[in-house]
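Regression test attached.
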Amino acid sequence: MTGIVFGPVAVSAGEPILPRWWQTVDRWSLACLLILAQIGLVMALASSPATAERNGLDPFHYFHRQAFYTGAAIALLVIVSMMRIELLRRLCILGFVVGLVALLLLPVFGTGFGQPAKRWFSLGFGSVQPSEFIKPCFVMVSAWFFVAVGKLGGQSGERISLLLAIGIAAILALQPDFGQASLFLAAWGVMYFVAGAPVLVLMVLAGATGIAGVVAYNTSEHFMRRIDLFLSGEPDPSSQLGFAVEALRNGGYFGVGVGEGQIKWSLPDAHTDFIIAVAAEEYGLVLVLFVILLFLVITVRSLLRLARERSPFIRIAGTGLMSMFALQALINMGVAARLLPAKGMTLPFISYGGSSALATAILMGVLLAFTRTRPQGDMEDAFALPDRRGLRAN
Amino acid sequence: MSLASGSLSAESFAESGAEREGHASDPRKSDGVSGLWQSQERRRRRSRLRLFILLAVLFSSFVVLGIRMISLVDGQSARDRTSLNAAGLPRAEIHDRNGNRLAINLKVASMAARPREMIDPEETARSLKRIFPDLDDNWLHRNLTGQRKFVWLRRQMSPEQHQAVRNLGEPGLEFGERYIRLYPAGSLAAHVLGGVRFGEEGLTGADLVGVAGVEGYFDTMLGDPERNGKPLVLSIDSAIQSTTRLILERGMQVVGATIASAILMDVRSGEVIAMVSLPDFDPNDRRSLAETKPEDPARSPLFNHAVQGIYELGSTQKLLTAAMALEHGPYSPETMINVTSPLYTQGFRITDYRYYGPEMSLRDVIVKSSNIGVARIALALGPQIQRGFLSRAGFFEPVPIELAEASGARPIVPGEWRESTTVTVSYGHGLSVSPLHLAAAYAAMVNGGVRVRPTLLKGGDLGSGPDGKKRSQSAERLVSARTSATLRDFLRGVVEDGTATIARGNPYQIGGKTGTADKVNPSGGYFKDRVVASFASVFPASNPTHVLVVIVDDPEIDIQGEAKRTAGWTAVPIAAEVVLRTAPLIGLRPVLAPEGGVPDGILRAVAPE
């Protein structure tokens, strides 16, 4: 709609891509993301030798892989953030179809790497987790449906997008991967909220989620055990949760020292789900708070930029991407801090994992592309933007 | 648009311009493009508001997460660092009144296995068996080769054992450290100290939890980091405790008893200087005893007979009957009491050990220990006075001493107080109390008449209870100073020409009352030939500073071919020996000259042979 009412807002032809990108991208968020990626690399160095040794690999096996993935992720992040919105949307819709098929084929061709939940495709050189890659695609497709409602004579797109969300969540819940399933539902809920959902409907949805949780608790042993563990008060010191809290306490404010941590030797998921515990033990509360601050800055800046956004599609999709990212960070760290029951969820950009790193890079790349400064049709834009550009040129 | 109407109120709240609101209130009536624009604008504004709500929610979530992380590190660490962390402060020590250490802490190594990380579990199991021969072969093999992640092997090891295990070089063995509790004096004050066990434990340390004695009573206080290692100072004197224990142990063997106890207490402050219960145990190795539960807990060495032992103490109780007579009745020491035998009450026939004639003075009733005499006095006074007096003396409640077991040692009080109850209680049957009850009551009888509360803390002031509340010595008066002086005279009379004459020559002027009570037969009634002999003594009798209660359970001694069981032959000699040996340690001077003449005092110390 913006285009129709206010004329084309695309970057004028012939303008150099990189300077234009650099001027319009949210540089603060970009910086935070890069710092997070670096912290992730350091943490891989700290935590993965223990896992590698357990699995009988070269101590730096996982670190080398993570270094490669981090490099690839940063490149991907920058490239994606340079793309045009229309291109991104088309690619994501395409990706969504591919991802959905991949997700459906998981029970047949997938592997669980020794665990009962089949979440990966093994591809010789590495493995791919479709549920990670489908995240940005799902958000884009959902937002697309939401926006269709706003148009005159448009279909009721949120119903279709809700069906998609429930479908994906159901597939994930069957794996079982309740963490990811709830993440998709939550992201959809946030998008619906921002898209203008009636309060009554939102309340009904919240109730339905609660009932679904109770049903899941009563039918899935996996789910029940984790909730019970959480509700049991003081954690069993030999459980993962107990170790995570113990790590925090051991670390104190400034940590026990680089490489001195003990928790990574006992926690099987030290390099993925409980990376923050390793960070807390070796580098102390200071690093944990810094990581929280980085996530907070990215969240706040992105949302503030999205609030100025005039295009409903960008606003809704951006919010969805944002909440996927922020919720995942909140849930991961909330579990380590025993605020939430245990869920298998990675900490974006910090946890080890190729799929996680690349998929998060795409997710945040799209978000960065969305939060680039662009004319919003406000009066000030007419003056501010060329003016600023002029000042830079001098 | 139906979707939008639901949140109209939230939106109009955000909208400020009244002019714009008028337009926006009903976009359907607007026409064409302008209506579309307005609906889009509304949508955008609502969207913005909701984005800010979302922002606030996410922002506060991150803040809550941060605060939670801080509180986990900050709040919980105080408790952990001190008890669970080996680097922190250990449990407070326990000292005797002279600063000798009765309970200390030692840092030792602990060991656990992570079988999954073991290189050669079989060989490790064999090596461990060589180092720790007491480990079970099968247990080791099963646990080290199985799928277990974590197995405790040794909760405490000596440094030598630690080194030997380290030399194995097995990465699947993990070491931690913890404080253990040591009692350097061994069984010296076993029942007073009690013992500890490990509470919550991990590789970084283990909590020590007091389970009995003062360790149990002051558990929270001793483990409190706020205490900052300040030792708990007891009223016990190690030297006196040790002497008392040795003499009681020897004496117990001589009189052929299996159970004995002794309490030495300051009559004014209520400080317990020595408390012995035999058989006793080594608190360093309490666990092995606690695990073997005998059928009768009173048979266990862990049982503190001085506090938990509830006895019918027999004639020692007669002093209290005399006290209530002097205090609440028209009696003087010279009042003549009818002691014609026998006495019938509710069909029971009461007799004396010997026939004393038709009547005797109140003093003689106590000195000669006449059952009939005290029974007649009690009947004359009536149950009201008797019960009230005993209640004020604390005989109906557990003694509130600072031991974990004390509150459970409840006297056995007759449920229905009949005439026969009044009679039997007057000479110590039908009402069962602990030796500590008796010691406390005697202290009050001779110290001028003021009730004392026994304490195990140095200084007489009772310090604070386990809840940290201040406790204070009550100044409640049980008998007048005059009555108290009379009772002291009675007690000395018992030793001079009554039932405890064996202690007559003791230079520390012992006064006391014997008690020989028939033991209760578990299958009903009383044993004919088994007794509990007790001697409640005070010294020096003219101005007592200390009370000593000695109880021997089931004694029998052969004196010139005759089996003697009465307290005069069993409990009294032991008590006299304890006084003789401990009075110098207390710092008392001998009061009596050997022949009963005027004491030569300091000359005795320098007199040539």
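Expected vs. actual: identical. Chain B touches chain A through 39 residues (CB under 8 Å).
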